[in-house]
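Appendix B, record 7
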Amino acid sequence: MTSTKTRRRIVPAASENGDTADKQDQLLLSAAICNGEDLGSFVRKAFASGKPETLLHHLKHFTKSKESEIEDVCRAHYQDFIVAVDDLRSLLSDVDSLKSSLSNSNNKLQNVAVPLLTSLDAYVEAKNKCSNIALAINSLNTEEVSKEFGDWLVEIRIVSRNLGQLAIGQASAARQREEELRIKQRQAEEQSRLSLRDCVYALEEEEDDEIDGVVDGSNGVNGISGFDLTPLYRAYHIHQTLGLEDRFKQYYFENRKLQLTSDFQVSSMTPFLESHQTFFAQIAGFFIVEDRVLRTGGGLISKMEVENLWDTAVSKMCSVLEDQFSRMQTANHLLLIKDYVSLLGVTLRRFGYPIDALLDVLSKHRDKYHELLLSDCRKQFAEALAADKFEQMYMKKEYEYSMNVLSFQIQTSNIMPAFPFVAPFSSTVPDCCRIVRSFIEDSVSFMSYGGQLEFFDVVKKYLDRLLTEVLDGALLKVINSSIGGVTQAMQMAANMAVFERACDFFFRHAAQLSGIPLRIAERGRRQFPLIKARDAAEETLSGLLKQKVDGFLSLIENVNWMADDPPQGGNEYANEVIIFLETLVSTAQQVLPVQVLKRVLQDVLAHISEMIVGALHGESVKRFNINAIMGLDVDVRLLESFAENQAPLLSEAEANQLKSGLAESRQMVNLLLSNHPENFLNPVIRERSYNALDYRKVVAISEKLRDQSDRLFGSFGTRGAKQNPKKKSLDALIKRLKDVN
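Structure tokens (predicted):
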């Protein structure tokens, strides 16, 4: 340190010997070095001025000045430095001691810890192995559960179909029991209506254990053998444990949605009539399963997801039904599918699924179904009528009577007849009645369980069409084309009378099947729907009988119109007609109802009366006398007597009505025999006694009347003889009537 101080004292101060410029350069150089600036400019300047020594001198001077400062600092902290060195030496001694102690401790620790470390390494290794084994076991379980779940997805489709078939079958059985109860109720009502015996009827309610089992899962495994949700819920639980709950929910929903989409496929290789039950049962089972999963699955599927699936299913089923119904041309096929769809609706409605859209599709095709049904019935009527020989049915046994008569309530008495029994109708009646009854039952079956509670008016409308359009038309066609004789025409007329009773049964039957009380259904009197066929049948019978009568009336040509004496016992034609009519009545009363026979006889008698008057009015009779008219009077009396003799068969009033068919001939004969024929001109008398006469015929016929004493009675008289008062009255009548004309 002394040498350093001496050395600093002998160093000359360069700045004191330099000039002012050198000092300034030296200060700038020092400042640049202190500031860390680039010294290149100073170097270039030194070499440019040719004085690099000056620069070196300045740098050395700067170095010495800094050394001086360092020395000053060192002198200021010298004592502290000495103390620090001493402390450091002491610390080094302590470090050596500590190092030796640590080394000893480390040796001891190593000796003690080596066994422990070995055990720890073994423990860590064992723990890792256990963890890996547990992970492997969990992985293996997730591979097993997934496989079990996949198998369940495959199996549940088969189970769903069986479940759907079972549930729909149970709904069908329940419906059948309801129908049986209704039948018992209808029978009781009918027996009460007929007052056959006092009836006590009570509905018996039965427990529907099977369907409850399907819903509640109390019958077998969830209501059906194999309907087991355990694999599904096990897989769901494991995925929840692994934190994959949402993923599994999505996986389940997507797979079930794919299965439902697959269930929608309708095979083009199999007729829908054969596959429709499997198709709808599969869908029904699917949603029965989903309902159970929704209620017991702990949130595996949401209500909204099930509703969305159902909406999709309803849309697809409606589309399939629309397509299949549009192709069908057989009413029975459409009915079979409709019935199964309605059972599907009943089944799924128990689980809370809305079925209105399905019912709307069924209602939409109501008209098409009935049109097909009417078409089928038209063919069946034609076949039944073509097979009929129009002969009275012969029944040997009671069951035949029950099947052909009692089942349609067309009997005229509640007393069972003796057998063998000859019915007043031919096979057409029961055959057509069976067709109509089947139509009613099919119509009610289609309308039932279709969402419409009161449908009797609809059934009645189509029943009216069946009777007035189809059956009436078929009968008219046969009457106008196939009836070739009196026997067949008589049988057809008799059939129509029986049909009139049957039609009352048809509407009562339709009302009963529709759940309408008979007292309501029987209100009001319906017009006979087969009135056209009935009138045509009676007109045909009357026409054929008139043709027969005309053959006998042709004998009127043998009448002596200018007879000297009145014929005794009537003219020949009249007696022949009477014999024919009596034979006709004897035969017809075995077949024809009294009212039909009365109408036909009245029409025939009116025709006979018209023919008698027509003979007087016709060109073939040029003149006649009073004796001929008296003979016609006897003829008319014979016919009137025939009408009066029918009183035991008819009634006195009806016999008089039958007699009124001879009004024209009776009034014409009475007028020609009257002593005061001009009374015809009196409106009161004419309305009372001659209302059936045409005044033009009266004039033409009256002019033909001749008298024995005056051959041209009313035109030329015997000269000088007193004029006959009757002649005078008749002339006045003719003159007045001609004036009116």
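Remarks on this record: The chain has a mean pLDDT of 82. The longest helix spans residues 78-194.
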